[in-house]
């Protein structure tokens, strides 16, 4: 019988297929004793299993490359740690089976790591993964991790970590469903990057039986278990309809009555530009320059290297707008040479613009690289600072831009509630605002963006967040200046319409979301967007705000 489950849709489209679970079961082998003459054979089995798992991790790393390779190689080294292996041998010598000896030796090592300070404690999950792989091999049961399947499937997991997904074959994975995670979790970002439908935060996902057919609607967050033939046909038809509407909607972003809302792309560097151009982005609304700095966290990239990277992005939008954010180091993006290592609360410490004002040489090099990169190009360059708290911050940034001889508009990101509350005073120093709703939610609700347990408060439909967006947009309007959104909120098509109704003047998002936002915006008039925005703000929860907006748009 068909049943319906509800989670959070984070990547659009419909996927229908059989459930395959990510293998994560912790296998506890029975504590049975072996005879002394069996010890040597068991030690050989243990050694073989460890070597095979290490070789497999190295091979997966080689295929994956980049950051995932480093993680997987570190895991391979853990597997072959000589002290751990000596402990396994000792346990077998006194009567353990190979699998039990591995299980117990890893448990002892785990205890040591868990108590050895924050960094090592963070490696416990990697250690558990290695142990599970070795024990699974010894027991002859399926490996934890990505399912081994030649047929396409819907991947169901508790949550997905980068190492789990490094080897996912996009031609086999029809969609994702996870029990944990939120709109900015790794699973959501990965699903959007692969362009497969995904639903996260689905209670009961873990209990879906292997092989059950499910239909995942990544737009509504619904998952249909054992869908009827009618339901499948209906979902496929509406997905096809949506797709057709998407390809039919091209050109600049605008509401049904022609109110223009430029749709811009969020990029991390030149590699993201082709997707932005293909999606019809009207420019770049957020160039996260820290990716250039993350390659080597011991020093800043040279001015020449920066000029080359900036120019490649600027050249892709000859007549368009490119908004470059200066380095946002600290908190979740620490850089060894800039970020203090002893802050009790890094998200509340020296990060973003604060870091740059402490290191004016890094800021001035970046600004002068930007000035050189834009030389001779007709592009509309705009430069903005992350984490502006008040007018003094905004002035310090604008002064630095002027001192670098930058011919660009200078702006401030609104990521701290104080900046939204006093937006007019900040606008005395800069020419535009850009709302970073990810951090604005984090600071408004005192809810760390990296902590899953507080993800409810990271929901960008929260009416308090909408209030701060409205305040900023109204301030910009009163000052005759612009106020865009470049946080994840802009990528939600319905919320994008609500943001437009709140007075936001441009929307910037990951390129894959642009066609969806463009198509949805084109369906409603500005007056409808304004009514939906007012209805959403009149509620007291994210859920009610979404429902209220939906009701306005569907004419209820
Ligand atoms: C934001 O905080 O909303 C934002 C756009 O910046 P980042 O996600 O890079 O912190
Ligand atoms: Mg931010």
From TrEMBL:
Cofactor(s) needed by this chain: Mg(2+)
Residues covered by the Phosphotransferase system enzyme I N-terminal domain: 6-123
UniProt-listed GO biological process terms: phosphoenolpyruvate-dependent sugar phosphotransferase system
Keyword Kinase: yes
Chain residues that bind Mg(2+): 415, 439
Protein name, UniProt field: Phosphoenolpyruvate-protein phosphotransferase
Annotated residues for binding of phosphoenolpyruvate: 288, 325, 438-439, 449
Organism the protein comes from: Streptomyces phaeoluteigriseus
Residues at the catalytic site: 186, 486
Localization terms from the record: Cytoplasm
PEP-utilising enzyme C-terminal domain segment(s): 251-524
Biological role: General (non sugar-specific) component of the phosphoenolpyruvate-dependent sugar phosphotransferase system (sugar PTS). This major carbohydrate active-transport system catalyzes the phosphorylation of incoming sugar substrates concomitantly with their translocation across the cell membrane. Enzyme I transfers the phosphoryl group from phosphoenolpyruvate (PEP) to the phosphoryl carrier protein (HPr).
GO molecular function terms attached to this record: kinase activity; metal ion binding; phosphoenolpyruvate-protein phosphotransferase activity
Catalysed reactions, as listed in the record: L-histidyl-[protein] + phosphoenolpyruvate = N(pros)-phospho-L-histidyl-[protein] + pyruvate
One Pfam family this sequence matches: PEP-utilizers
UniProt enzyme class: transferase
PEP-utilising enzyme mobile domain: residues covered: 151-221
NCBIfam families linked: PTS_I_fam (TIGR01417)
